[in-house]
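Standup notes, structure subgroup. Blocker cleared on the adenosine monophosphate input:
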Amino acid sequence: MCLFCKIINREIPSNAVAENEEFYAFHDINPKAPVHVLIIPKTHYDSFDDIPSDAMGKMATFMQEVARELGINQSGYRIISNIGEDGGQEVKHLHFHLLGGAKLHWGHLADSDPKDFF
Ligand code: AMP
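Run returned:
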């Protein structure tokens, strides 16, 4: 069973933010912003590339609700999903990073150029 499936099953502790029958939101253990929450489906999909559109639609609604509950929907936020090897995905269970609570930098992409990657 993968790490996030164990978190859903409460075999590994986590700091809950919101939950319903299909989705779970919890604080990232290594936050990169004042608000850094992970949002996951309770059904295991390896990544964003595998989730069906109907489930993704419900997940989008859940993510909007979480942003509202955290009080960052007006100030703004960023959603990131790393996918596979090139995307830098470490945990192979679909998750969205919900980041906010301050004006976010664009990180290493700010000054990068496509040719820098080769
Ligand atoms: P990614 O690189 O997109 O796969 O992101 C995985 C994220 O999971 C990282 O931001 C980690 O800090 C986070 N993470 C790993 N283990 C835990 C855990 N036990 N509880 C909360 N967040 C975790």
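Discussed briefly. The mean pLDDT is 96.
Next: hand off to the docking folks.
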